[in-house]
Amino acid sequence: MSRERAVTARLPEQPDFLWAEAEPKPSYDVVVVGAGGHGLATAYYLAMNHGITNVAVVERGWLGGGNMARNTTIIRSNYLRKESAGIYEHALKLWEGLEAGLDCEVAFSQRGVLNLAHSLADVREGRRRVNANQLNGIDAQWLTPPEVQKVAPILNISSDVRYPVLGATFQPRAGIAKHDWVAWGYARAAHALGVDLIQGCAVLGVLREGDRVVGVETERGPIRAGRVALAAAGHSSVVTASLGLALPLQSYPLQALVSELLEQVLDTVVMSNAVHVYVSQAHKGELVMGAGIDSFLGYGQRGSFSVIENQMAAAIELFPIFSRAHVLRTWGGIVDVTPDASPIVGLTPYSGLYINCGWGTGGFKATPGIGWVFADTIAHDRPHPLAVPFSLSRFDSGALVDEHGAAAVAH
Amino acid sequence: MLSIPCPWCGFRDEIEFGYGGQAHVSYPAQPSTVDDGDWAAYLFFRDNPKGWFAERWMHRAGCQRWFNVVRHTVTYQILVSYPPGVPRPDVG
User: Fold this and answer.
1) Looking at beta carbons, which residues of chain A come within 8 Å of B73?
2) Bridge partner residues of B72 (DSSP)
3) Spatial separation of the C-alpha atoms in residues B1 and B4, rounded to whole Å
4) Which of A97, A201, A237, A264 has its CA 20 to 30 A from that of B87?
5) With contacts defined as CB-CB under 8 Å, which chain B residues touch A235?
6) What is this structure's pTM?
7) What is the ipTM of this complex?
């Protein structure tokens, strides 16, 4: 037997497909636009919680291949405002039972998140946020620099650096998960309940009769729908343009990167809003780091290298041992940012059309929570109580949910 | 990194510039008569096209002057830059 054949013989069996490709049917009760985490979770909870199984999820590219494959997988709920605490904490509680619920491993690891303070203003803001979190029933602590270093021993807490660590907020229940396993878990579970998953089928526009939305036009023909639910993230404005429905969104490139596989050196998540870097170490060993958004509007799924350079400069000062690591891959996703850095979820001026967008740089952590809430909103044709503050109409009324300054700069 | 043509200084690296979003957005002519919907449109709603886009940049580390650029939001190609107050050139 040749050496080559011996190697081939040891390869594992090709795994069974987790779901089957569907051809679009002429009509569905609900068409979900976008097979990212939010779209798949929405379809799953429509079927699971509301018994609505005549559902299609229509995806321009491939399943879980947009921002779902490009985020840095951080999960936390330590936002400032009670409206944000409501939705993100609902999501975190669902994360805690997700593997059992989906009967699927997603490598959810509650390793905690540190949000570093580098200035007196950061310290005040961090303490204020800890207080707000505790009032909202969210686990949060304020840590002094020595306590910070106990959680993350490789962190440089000396005072003679450009961004000294003056303390940090800590949420022990925060963590990470394997993003593609989450998408595949929801896809498999939704498919098992009868949901059609249609990849490679771009939605070109929304079909309407008067003020009622009645389906979508796709590159594979029209699909009629009783209800249309948008979960298209950075491309939401493009989808609603055919309706003349303007959304207060700006789509920006957001970059992230990984190092080569390293020994485990960091068993928590470290974020720094002031220097715009956030770091965790994936289960396999890569250091996963995210940056701030690029400054300019862009749909190119790539950004400028100067952003990566800034991020690396900050990371190496905070973690001197990272200077020996190499950047293996960098990439970009397109994030849809709202003026108040909070999402837009709920009804639209068109009956039968529901939107979920504007999650900006922080949508992954919300995946189970927004799937649950958006499905409930669609099923009952009214905003779920947790979605009420995030209506599109808040930009007319002025009731913004301002998470910019406090908690949502870096996600 | 983008290479951006400042109308006064020529091509410079993107890190010298600040971004100002959509160009040619005018302050309401009669602010006292503007209703909530129009204020919302002025304050919060900007075009978000996948394609050619007229946008503002400021040469922060150079002449510190604002100007407009027509740029493609997928390829990031820049067609033209022009001073503020000049109508958008008929390109893109």
Assistant:
1) 251, 297-300
2) B52
3) 9
4) A237
5) 50
6) 0.94
7) 0.96
